[in-house]
Amino acid sequence: MPLPHPKLWLQAKDYLLIIFGISLYGLGFCAFIATAPDQVVIGGMAGLSQVVDMLSYGVFGFHIPYSVTIFTVNIVMLALAWKIVGRTFVIRTLFGVVVITVMFAVFQPLFTKPPVEGQTFMDIIIGAVLCGLGIGLVFIHNGSTGGTDIVAAVASKKSNVSIGRAMMYFDLSVISSSMLLKFILMPDFNFQAAVPALVYGLITLFVIPFMADMMINTNRMAVQFTIFSPYWQEIATAINNEAQRGCTVLNGMGWYSKKEVKVLLVMCRKIESVTIFRIIKSIDKDAFITQAEVNGVYGKGFDEIKLKMNKPKAAKTNAKTGTPVVDLDLPARPEPTAKII
């Protein structure tokens, strides 16, 4: 069945922004991080491809392109995570894997030296910021660059760990393994000389997830409006029709005037707040309004609550009679008592 035009446009817009986000990620890594003179290894699938290349060159004497490692490992991880992350995420991740493979194949030969020569710290910071913004943009539109993103998505669905924190744990293991490989494969390995690369890698470890979380959370920021106006019916109807947001009408009373008033309670995304203000001002420029930021809004039209629920323990029963068995080793729950104040 063909998709309606608005929905088709939203799907196309998502894929275009996924391509743009992956392009930012590929540019940040290939241009600014991979060309650093200190052989900085970052986390994620890009860092893992660096480790694989390092291992293949140290053991077999030839290089494995980053794009080959990224494509191969991602296909394996997606096959394992199919049932957990869902069909839509897998399809968009496959799309992302193909795009990032192409981007790495294009960008890697183009950049052989850092854009800001002699400023390794600036190269690492710029590259990490671009990588984090790219990953965050891809996640906002339900896509993925693969690799660490798959691990982060699985962790986010199965636990209360945020996407940025799950990425940080995985990236730390990749950076640690790169230092271990350097120690094993290089007989003249000098740990003191490798400290700058380790420090730069740890900087990316914090900057990339931070930027990704900031990008995701900024898109999800919500505000709460409390509106007092005698034209509350017109305002509520306009918010429903023009802003596509719901309103809750509360009964109140002004204590000074002793008159009953109607109060509108509205929840919306932060980026929609200007639209709400314009609607109110066009109907009642003297309306009394309060606006407050809220940490999270969950439910219809907003975010979904993701919590790992504990499974209830099955009650023990007698095999012969089928009656419940009370475990006498457990302490008895005390009876509630009234406290006199």
How would you describe this structure to a colleague?
The protein is of the alpha+beta class and 341 residues long. The chain starts with a helix and ends in a 47-residue tail after the last strand. Helix 1 (5-33) packs antiparallel against helix 5, helix 3 (66-85) packs antiparallel against helix 4 and helix 7 (163-185) runs antiparallel to helix 8 (191-220). It is elongated. The protein has a four-stranded antiparallel β-sheet, covered by helices on one side. It has helices spanning 5-33, 44-59, 66-85, 87-110, 120-140, 148-158, 163-185, 191-220, 232-243, 273-283, and strands spanning 222-228, 247-254, 259-269, 288-294.
Largest sheet: 4 strands, antiparallel
This entry's quaternary arrangement is single chain
Q: What is the CA-atom radius of gyration, in angstroms?
A: 27 Å
Strand content: 5-15%
Mean model confidence by pLDDT: 77
Question: What string, H for helix and E for strand, traces the elements in order?
Answer: HHHHHHHHEHEEHE
| Intertermini distance | 68 Å
